[in-house]
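Before drawing any conclusions, I needed to go through one protein's amino acid sequence and its backbone structure tokens, quoted below without any editing.
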Amino acid sequence: MRTRALHRALVTLLSASAVTALVPAVASAAGPDQCMISRTGYTSDLRPGQHLASGASLIPTPGKAELVMQPDGNLVIYASGNPGGYRLALWSSGTYGNPGAYATMQEDGNFVVYKKDGGEGKGGALWNTATYGDRANSYVNASIRDDGNFVVSGRGENLSWRTETMRWNAKVCSGDMSWSPGFWAESATVWLVLQKDNNLVMYRKSDGKAIWGSGTYGNRKALTLEMGDNGDLTLHEYGQNETVRWRTGTAGHTNAYALLQDDGNLVVYKKGGGEGKGGALWNTGTYNKV
């Protein structure tokens, strides 16, 4: 797993050049111990002409996901951990090594990270979403959501760009929408992330150390995490054949579900089973590593 691009850094309060707007996101009735994703929360936006200065952050809700323009020039999305503790980097622009770099939402619909003295008409662009264009769009903005997804609405042929770093509930059931690379979940002690390299990895919140992984990194095709109707939790390629690259081997148990527990264990339970009820079919064995 690569760590160089995901440097941690202390961040300042939101600077005056990055104006925040809090608006409700799409709500869902599902709680963290229920099936399906919960999108209840807020977004924090940059409008055209607004900047995220070096060292500043966009934080829709304190204690949840945040977008940080680090002093080293890297734009990073973090999942917040325990108060004052380690934060998990979910995505980065890979622009570290450029002290003083800043980000801006341009009038042309492009979201760009520029070198310290760069800007529109000056050059110095380090990274961009390529959402520039001349199409009419009254919702041009860059938005970080409570669930960790960063979305840019621009003016290009493809109006929208996103990191696909969406937070899901800690319970995964058959019939749920499948996970794509970048999706993640959390319990009180750990994060579970389907990384962009296709590896499903569990990190503990106390120090950010990886304590379990599926070993599926580097697969040529993007993998999907899904709980099958037969009770088997799998990582498989998307397509006609859906080649399975990893599985729990728990098939034969209709309506089984997976639960990321507060004790740090990921467990597949029979229907009707659960913590204190028995019925465990498979687990990561990480309950004693947090």
Summary: The chain has two domains: 22-32+41-152, 171-283. Residues 231 and 256 are 5 Å apart (CA to CA).
